[in-house]
Amino acid sequence: MTKHGPAVPAEGSPVILVQGVSKEYRTRTGSILAVANLSFSVREREFVAILGSSGCGKSTLLRMVSGLTPPTQGSIQVKGEAVTEPLENIGMVFQSSVLLKWRTVLGNVLFPAEALRRGKAAYRDRALALLKLVGLEGFERKYPSELSGGMAQRVSLCRALLLDPDLMLMDEPFGALDALTREEMNLELLRIWEERRKTILFVTHSLSEAVFLADRVVVMTPRPGRLALDLAIDLPRPRFNALRAEPRFGEYLLKLQQTMGLAR
After folding, report:
1. Would you say 225 and 36 are in contact if contact means Cβ atoms under 8 Å apart?
2. Helix boundaries (H) for 116-221
3. 122, part of any domain
4. What is the domain count for the chain?
5. Each residue of 236-259: pLDDT tens digit?
6. Strand 73-78 and strand 11-27: pairing?
7. Distances from the Cα of 200 to the Cαs of 36, 64, 107, in angstroms?
8. Lowest CB count within 10 Å: 15, 138, 225, 243, which one?
9. Residue 135 domain flag
């Protein structure tokens, strides 16, 4: 295997602790159990990918961790505190960039500071530094309609990092991008993560993306989402696209395929 240094182990006690969590939705035609008796943890500065088929409750899980949706049963703790309301010190990135079309790139990045009444002037320098970090220096006055999909997701990532959150929740952030841009954004995210070392919970449908990015991959069963596998990814960091050709990478992919019933 190509040597780029050892994988960096996660440190400290769990930042996220999910214990026996279930989520049931009541609808006009009956109840739907989205998540069932799910338990796992995420340690400080760990990158954990959540993998599963459509409708298995991955996005529901992120909403519960963020405090936007309460669990029906079980408990969730973030940094030792029970999650009972929406959390402030988190960054969220969605599949769509969800940029405000009437605001400039800089205005979109500064929006969280304005929304929490922290004053955008105090965060302007940080916003500009983040845009430079992701290669968007000079695009501060552009509008979302003037950006490519990958550029818009970079702006969304800057917005999520503006308030320097301890925890990043990412819900298929690159799922709508073409294959080449998606690979580019994978590398960009890893570069930023290596520099900033945030704790990341990352939802994806892509087995290859999960293995390439994560320290661990948590696989959920089809609905209701239960824990099918919690797989440690022992691959060196920093990671580059050449790693995808390594035998060990293929072994992890096969293990995930077998767990999800995709190996034929």
Report:
1. yes
2. 124-133, 149-161, 179-196, 207-213
3. yes
4. 1
5. 999 999 999 999 999 999 999 999
6. antiparallel
7. 23, 15, 25
8. 138
9. yes
